[in-house]
Amino acid sequence: MMKNDASALRWLMALALLLLVGCAHQPVSLYQWGSYQDQVYLYFKGESREAQIQALEKDLQVMQAANRPVPPGLRAHLGMLYAETGNDAKAQENLLAEKASYPESTTYIDLLLKKYQKQVALP
Amino acid sequence: MKNILQILAAAALILMMTGCATTPVAYDYSAYKASKPRSILVLPPVSHAPDIDASPSMLSVATLPLAEAGYYVLPVAPVYETFRQNGVMVAEDAQSIEVRKLREIFGADAALYITVEKYGSVYQVLSSAVIVSADAKLVDLRTGEMLWQGHAQASSAENQNNGGGLLGMLVSAAVNQIVNQVTDRGHQIAGVASVRLLSAGHPSGLLYGPYNPKYEAEK
Fold this sequence. Notes:
The complex is a heterodimer of chains A (123) and B (219).
Chain A: H1 2-23, H2 36-44, H3 49-65, H4 74-84, H5 88-101, H6 106-121
Helix pairs in contact in A: 2-3, 3-4, 4-5, 5-6
Chain B: H1 2-19, H2 30-35, E1 39-42, E2 46-47, H3 54-60, H4 63-69, E3 72-73, H5 76-85, H6 91-95, H7 99-106, E4 110-123, E5 128-140, E6 146-155, H8 165-179, H9 185-198
Parallel strand pairs in B: 1-3, 1-4, 2-4
Antiparallel strand pairs in B: 4-5, 5-6
């Protein structure tokens, strides 16, 4: 009787353990996000472009230090901010970085590059 | 004593079999699977909510779940600016542009059309809650074919504990990263709704994309 109780208890504990680990899928995040999603919202809310550039450059440093891939769109967003503040070299650098990391962006990034170059050509 | 243990063990076994089992929903993924989209263009969301923040808020939280699902997401703010600078000022107009034209300009494989149904405070007799609900459909930009559609809602009144799992973790991650800087309740709840609507790996949800290790591993 005692022996049966003990084995049933062991069985129960094994089951409980299975239950605990079975459901907990180890979540794996593909990217570090930093403040990127916030910055997009703040962009639409009219946040200063300089403040956004500062925040995203800091995020980039953290991601690069951790050797984690930069999320899709971040470098393109940063490139747009630089273009809006007149820093065309930095705009181009970030747009090219987006294209290099994500070839899927090529068509659109090429369009942006052309547009920003046109802006440069204007007096 | 022995009987109780046996009953408990049986109960645990049943719980184990049912607790983790995701309810099977007959969703036809055949067009989606054949299309194999790599990149997604998120169009400015159409909003039926009175709050003017609804559309930009939903747009700005769409990238995280889609990218974590494994897709390349066209940068939403530059895309929005491109529409604006070409005279497309409202979401309805952006969403009615023909797919061939969108494909030509943005080069994306698929486009996501979001409609925000509810956004903001709903006043009830005893309490009020912030509710965000939205619909989305994914359309192939090469063929115009609809690949997927879904609906999700989130409310400040519900228990935020999502019962663990990847979706729960993603929800709390989304909330935490939004709470960091923006103390805007509607936007926070939009983050939760967006993760529920646009995450992969749950019944009737999006399929994993090529950047996710689980791509094409689903049955």
